[in-house]
Amino acid sequence: MSQYTDNASKSMDKCIEALKANFSRVRTGRANPHILDSIRVDYYGQPTPVTQLAGVKVPEASMLVVEPWDKTSLKAIEKAIETSDLGITPSNDGACIRLPFPKPTEERRRELAKECSQMAEEGRVAVRNVRREANGKVERDEELPEDVQTREKKAIQKLTDSHVALIDELLKAKTAEVMEI
């Protein structure tokens, strides 16, 4: 691989990782600890991620249990989860916080599948933008002969096609997960 395809591959891989991170935040009927990644708790005046203050367990498919290491932070964690846009009501039993994940309705599952499709399309656009930038760099390199430029562009296109296919596979899997009852 040349420097152009290598750089393009690394950038496209980052696009895939970003898409996976976005997909992990989509709330399905199944409990997913990554849904708490974006929640910050006011802990001694510092916004701190929930995952740094507590252990998050999945005792059953539709329940998350958050057990803080410092029991004094229990109320702050509960408040942060309540004020977040998760749409889950936490229940505090004095030692841990339980987060029940209700099964989404058919209409909500369709909305989530549509959301996932939009995320996938954004991922495809990001991959294509990387392709455009890489092709531009190849074209601007005046030291490369024309046949080498053509070969580089074909290699970049192959990379693009494989990454777009991977995005399609990820979307198919996530849509199946979301639509699962």
From TrEMBL:
Keywords: Cytoplasm, Protein biosynthesis. Coiled coil: none annotated. The keyword Zinc does not apply. It is found in: Cytoplasm. GO terms for cellular component: cytoplasm. InterPro entries: Ribosome_recyc_fac, Ribosome_recyc_fac_dom, RRF_sf. GO terms for biological process: translational termination. Residues 19-179 form the Ribosome recycling factor domain. The keyword Cytoplasm applies. This is Ribosome-recycling factor. It comes from Thermophilibacter immobilis.
